[in-house]
Amino acid sequence: MSTFLKPMEPVLSKELLLKSDCVYQVKWDGIRILAKIDKGSVLLHTRHGNLRTSIYPEITALLEAQYANQTLYLDGEMISLHKGKPDFFRVVKRDRMKTASKIQQFISKIPVSYIVFDVLKLDEWITSKSLLTRLSLLQDLIQPSEKLQLCPTSEDGKTLFQYTLDHGWEGIVVKEKNGLYHIGEKHPTWKKIKHFQFITASLLGVTLKSGSVYSLILGVKEDDSWKYIGRVSSGLSTEEKRILTAYSSSLAISTPMAKIPPFREEEIRWFSPIMQAKIRFLEWTPDGTLRNPVIESFQK
């Protein structure tokens, strides 16, 4: 196996499956972090293999002390709770810090917790064991504290799903009890269900790359002016790109309808807000744009 393995990923599901052979966990809105522990030596890394050991020194020190005599590979999520829910933007701020002095300063300003939901190695690799077996081993391993927690597992998916919806959390993950850990794969034995929001937005323009439409510039009307709320390319089909490219010149106007941040695209064509699209998104960002927008459909 490579030095840093890529974790197993859930596939996205649009419906909640309530099955007796599954268990249910919160989908934590944070940074996916794996902990490679070898008798007190700890390496934290992201799902892409980027080191985070020095970014979260309080977690590193805790794992070093707690597992000084064990060899483990843990899988989990680094989160920062704020106002009763995991705050993705706060933990991202921590995750992007580079200098040791600033990291130390923000340990108390943006505290994080490592939520562990799987164990891949316990002296030997156990990825071929069932999820229930791995969770049972994990239960004995984790000594819960403010900074290190075991992800709760429920048999009641309906209640957990409703709880996360009522509290504004991201969603849940459905996992098959007998499922193995498929390193580096998106595998259907794990399914994620997210609580999406929807908005009807107007097209204020398009960005182009190599002469073809690449993304849509979105806005909404507030009082008597237009507000930029982000841009989106996900969900835009090849045929929709072709049609928008063909008509974008005739729809173009010289001045944008809203104040727009600078883009890097080769070309931008501004539109009058005569077209609308239904947009699916996860939440509003602190700067008032859409997080993870996806085009659902165009509307007349």
UniProtKB/TrEMBL annotation:
ATP-dependent DNA ligase family profile domain sequence ranges: 105-194
Entry cofactors: a divalent metal cation
Transmembrane intervals: none
Top-level class of the enzyme under EC nomenclature: ligase
Keyword DNA repair included in the entry's annotation: yes
Domain of life assignment: Bacteria
Catalytic activities: ATP + (deoxyribonucleotide)n-3'-hydroxyl + 5'-phospho-(deoxyribonucleotide)m = (deoxyribonucleotide)n+m + AMP + diphosphate
Keywords from the named record: DNA damage, DNA repair, DNA replication, Ligase
CDD domains in alphabetical order: Adenylation_DNA_ligase_LigD_LigC, OBF_DNA_ligase_LigD
EC code: 6.5.1.1
Protein name according to UniProt: DNA ligase (ATP)
Organism: Shimazuella alba
Lineage, broadest ranks: Bacteria, Bacillati, Bacillota, Bacilli, Bacillales
